[in-house]
Amino acid sequence: MSIIVFGSINIDLAAKTPRLPQPGETVIGSNFSTSGGGKGANQAVAAARLGTSTHIIGRVGNDKFAGELLTNLQSYGVNTDNVSIDQNTHSGVAIIAVDETGQNNIIVIPGANNNVGDVELERLKKLLTKATSLLLQLEIPLEIVRKAAKAAREAGVRVILDPAPACSDLPLAEPSKRIELYPLIDIITPNEVEASQLVGFRVNDRETAILAAKQLQERGVENVIVKLGDRGAVAVTADETFFVPAFAVEAIDTVAAGDAFNGGLAAALDGGRSHREAVVWGSAAGALCATKAGAQVAMCDRATFDKFLHNLT
Predict the structure, then answer these.
(1) pLDDT tens digits, residue range 231-267?
(2) CA distance 98 to 67
(3) Minimal CA–CA distance to 96: which of 38, 169, 55?
(4) Residue range 81-113, pLDDT digits in tens
(5) Model pTM?
(6) How many domains, in total, are found in the chain?
(7) How far is CA 232 from the centre of its chain?
(8) Is residue 75 part of a domain?
(9) Which sequence positions are flagged as catalytic?
(10) Whole domain around residue 65: which residue ranges?
């Protein structure tokens, strides 16, 4: 069995700055790097690094970045057989600024990710027969995300959605047909900003996270995990509500910590662990990721991960 990630693949262009610039301001940076990114690809690497068989389905462009992106994913153990090369556009690009505290802002130019469509959907359907979880994000067209979730639900495969970047119209799949997305999702994992955007009120602590989670459950999602960064994670499932505190680490770069969380979560569930254990795994993976600069390069391997958890018990 395996995890399937259906989503974005980007090249990350990252700059380190003393602080994030204000509108209209120029800030002198201290470092620049390029690396593989995209929320889909990041989550695939996170899961694969933890020893889980992982496939990614998506698109790269007809440019010099394409080969680099695919080779990079393969080097981490991700199966890229179902990644298309789009001859008519460039690969997805993310322009990232990271300050000295590890906070970041990101501009994403989707490129080939915007063209993920029915071709990739058909490839997904063929892989679902051997999958445990399908990981989705919102850096590819929303209509295709909905169709992928529907296909996975029909195949009996767990659907995990990272609603990033969040959009207020997420509940509706196809407005003309009124097909809802939420009931197709087994687990949704917004951070506090995304949760706020989805529910329409500020989410900034455990209490508001629980309120947001319950509202999302009312829309049809069975399990909700709200990621509160260095304040931990709140989970509201069909059976229980619980809180997992954040692991104390020295954060260098939080840019892919959320993706590491989802990869760790999926890897734990793939191994038959409970939701509570899976949230712990996600939190640990996210914490370890934040201790390194970059996205995919910051994902920890299984040996490091196991040692980290062992030292905390």
Answers:
(1) 999 999 989 999 999 998 888 878 899 999 999 999 9
(2) 26
(3) 38
(4) 999 999 999 999 988 898 988 788 888 899 999
(5) 0.91
(6) 1
(7) 17
(8) yes
(9) 259
(10) 2-9+38-92+112-312
